[in-house]
Write a structure and sequence with these properties.
Layout (H helix, E strand, L loop, with lengths): L2 E5 L2 E4 L4 E8 L7 E7 L6 E6 L6 E3 L7 E6 L4 E6 L8 E8 L2 H5 L8 E2 L3 E6 L1
Parallel strand pairs: 2-11
Antiparallel strand pairs: 1-3, 3-8, 4-5, 4-9, 5-6, 7-8, 9-10, 9-11
């Protein structure tokens, strides 16, 4: 059974940085496209950033481009989301996801993705 566990969320001020972690068990992350999504209150879950299974290619949404970076440590079977220059609009629950279909992931088709974590809250105050 594949399990994803996010950590690292919290309350920060605008302009601060935060790093989220997603520890994966049950299968190697090298088998998956790994991604981060987020969901703000009353809004649809939205795609944030993804990494292909090799970790070489990444794709980000326009709203976080140049501020958020995804990385992966295959030895630790963990994926990270480095978030810089945070804004109040980044406030959301952040979810880690794993799937084997790159185009499905970057299209933001969250309802069909294979594996999800439970989410971690990020709150950015102004």
């Amino acid at each position: 059974q594949v399990r994803l566990v996010e950590s690292g969320g919290g309350l920060v001020q605008a302009g601060d940085s935060l790093r989220l972690s997603c520890a994966v068990s049950g299968r190697s992350i090298s088998s998956y496209i790994m991604a981060w999504f987020r969901q703000a209150p009353g809004k649809e879950r939205e795609f944030v950033v993804a990494s292909d299974s090799s970790g070489i290619s990444t794709y980000s949404s326009d709203s976080v481009k140049d501020r958020f970076t995804i990385s992966r440590d295959d030895a630790k079977n963990t994926v990270y989301l480095q978030m810089d220059s945070l804004k109040p609009g980044d406030t959301a629950v952040y979810y880690c996801a794993a799937d084997r279909r790159y185009m499905t992931v970057i299209a933001g088709d969250h309802r069909s993705l294979e594996h999800w974590g439970q989410g971690t809250q990020v709150t950015v105050s102004s």
